C-alpha cells in the first residue's frame, strides 16, 4: 500500500465529497429535531426509499438522477408535510417514547414495503459518463462523488439562505427558539412545523438521489443510514444545521482514512470512536448552536 501524499490527498478528498452527501442527509434530521423536537427514527428508511425511487425512475424511464432530484424532493416534501400534519401533530405533546414507537413502526413499514416490492437484491444506478475520473494534476476525482457533492452543497446553501433570509424561514426559526412566543404573536405553529418536517424529508430525498450514485441500496440499508445520521448529528450538534454538515464531513473523511489505513470494515469503528470522543469532551456536539 502506498502512503505517498497524493494518494492520501485523493483519499481525503473522496471522503470529503462523500461526507457532504452524508451532511445533507443529517441536515434533514437536524431541521426536524431543531424545529419540531421530533427525533425521526425512520430517517434512514426514508433515505433508502429515496434511493429505490431514484433507481426505479432510472431503470423504468431512464430519468437521470440529477433530474429526478426535483420531483423526488417535491414528493418527499409533500410526504413529510402530510406526515407531520396528519399523524405526528397529535403526538407532539405526548411522551417521547410514543413518538419513538410511532416512527419506529413507520420505519418497519417502509423497510417491509421495499422488501415486498423490490425483493432482497441490491439496486444501483450506473451512468456511463460518470465512469471516467476528473484529473487535476495528481488528483483523480470520482465524477459521481464530485457532482453529488456539488448538489449537496447547492441544496445546503439554498436551505441556509431560506432559513436566514425568507419570512417563512425566519418564522420557522422563531418557532424553534420559542414555541409559546411564536403562538402569542400569531404564527401558525402547526403549519410551520409541517413545513419544517417537509423540508427535512426533502433533504433526505435529495441525499438519496445522490447516494444511489455512490453505493448500492438494499431494503436493509435503512437502519444503517438511520444510525449513521444519528452519529453525524451527535458529533456535529443535534439541532444545528452547520453542525450536521461539519459532522457529515468529519464522518466521511474519517471513514475514508480509516478504510485506507486499516480496512474498509473498520469504517464504522472509526465513526463510533469519533462519536465517543465528542460525547466525552463536548456532549452537546462540536457546534451547539440552534437552528
Beta-strand percent range = under 5%
Helical stretch count? 11
What is the domain tally? 1
What distance lies between the first and last C-alpha atoms, to the nearest angstrom? 43 Å
Count all strands and give the number.
Answer: 2
The percentage helix is over 70%
| CA-atom Rg in angstroms | 19 Å
**Low-confidence spans: pLDDT under 50, at least 5 residues?**
none
Strand order of the largest sheet: 1-2
Q: Rough shape?
A: globular
Structural class: mainly alpha
Quaternary status? single chain
- Compressed to H and E, one letter per element, the order equals HHHHEEHHHHHHH
The description of the largest β-sheet is: 2 strands, antiparallel
Topology:
Layout: H1 5-36, H2 43-61, H3 65-86, H4 96-118, E1 134-136, E2 139-141, H5 143-165, H6 167-177, H7 179-184, H8 189-211, H9 221-236, H10 241-261, H11 267-281
